[in-house]
Amino acid sequence: MTAEELLAQDFGTLADVIRAQAAELGEKPALVDANRTISYRELDELMDRIAAALQRDGVKTGEAVAVCATTSVEYGATFFGILRAGAVVAPLAPSSTPESLAMMLKDCGARIFFLDSGVAKQLQDVAGEISATRIALDGSDAGQAFEAWLAPAGARPAPVEIDPDQGFNIIYSSGTTGAPKGIVQPHRMRWGQIRRGVYPQDSVTMISTPLYSNTTLVSYLPTISNGGTAVLMPKFDAEQFLKLSEKHRATHAMLVPVQYRRLLERPDFDSYDLSSYRMKFATSAPFSAELKRQVLDRWPGGLIEYYGMTEGGGSCGLVAHEYPDKLHTVGKPLPGHDIRLIGEDGQELPQGEIGEVVGRSGAMMVGYHNQPGKTSEAEWWSPEGLRYIRTGDVGRFDEDGFLTLMDRKKDMIISGGFNIYPSDLEAEIVKHEAVLEAAVVGVASDKWGETPVAFVALKPGQKIEAEALKAWVNERLGKTQRLADLKLVDGLPRSHIGKVLKRELRDGYRGAATA
Question: What is the pTM of this model?
């Protein structure tokens, strides 16, 4: 069966599609990084060797295998090889604290852990808590060398049966000091995404966000399933992105808004030949209408903004180049996506009312791994008995059916495309012996989109300088979580029922939080 025929089916597996693409495309480049390029034939063979080695080491269908490393061809192929073995991919963020990484490894139950030297160094202090067998993707002494661990050339894994509701991957919503939530996304959900026709066989997609991010996967997976070429960047750099785009004649890219801003702010942006671009995508963070307009005016090709959650549910899409008068919105619900607004009482609201966004589609998480209580909190059930995912975002539909986001009901901060949960940061701050209470809010940042700022009240009689406390806290946080500013206050503003009024803190903030 051809790849096209497989993709036309109601359900199939990505591993089978890549096998079919390899038979048809042979030596066409599949994955490209700074060190090497591998063809579809080579990718398929490497996936076989990875899957056979995992099965040799006792990995069973439905069991999680963890990966935490810098993006590379080896990482990209390992992701697919895990799937071919019938296992579930658990991609973890290297920017997480060592304690959080150890916690996530334990939570997902991975017995095999792919990593690199940078992550191994980071984990030195918690090495005793990690029992998983280590495989070093970069050939370092972080674990068994990847090439030596692989099954022999020509090895083939045993066939596996995949249930549509079986886990495809577990993405952790927060690589933070609190308890991360593992979002289990099933094969059924990913199958719907990889069939998207927006990435044709001749596409060349720039992958400039990490492979542990859902933002990346919704672009990376369909590029490969449809026979395109993925250009992998280990880390986003505006100049390198533009050079690689020009060199490889890139046609597609998925970027978060802060990356668009950094690219367009370069004085030499207009000197690069980006005429090969057909479509650009954005997601994960608020995208201002002004910035969207700049992208449309200065960058060839179309622009589509997606709004949705890693947990799935309902998603919206704004085809910005077709609706230049709707740039203040996140677009309309995608085909097959049902999005509704509900009030504080859980009742559905009519068009024009402001309420919490809930959504339902074929792309929905199974639940939070090992956290049924959190899963239940994330669900809303319609009067017809249908399951929806709550977003925690507040919005309103206009008369044309376009959704405008008014605010986030939850206090989650999105900084540089990464989710930061204030409660996790607050829990770390109050561990200091001088601290009585703390509140963290997100404030606008030119560099990151949003950045966290803490307001801290000290215990009576305690003294510490704000800068010293900020440094103490930041040493204990992941790289993407660190505070941009910390303000000492006499007390936190509260409502009559004792709830901290974070809006007052955010609105009254004055400081240099754009760093």
Answer: 0.81
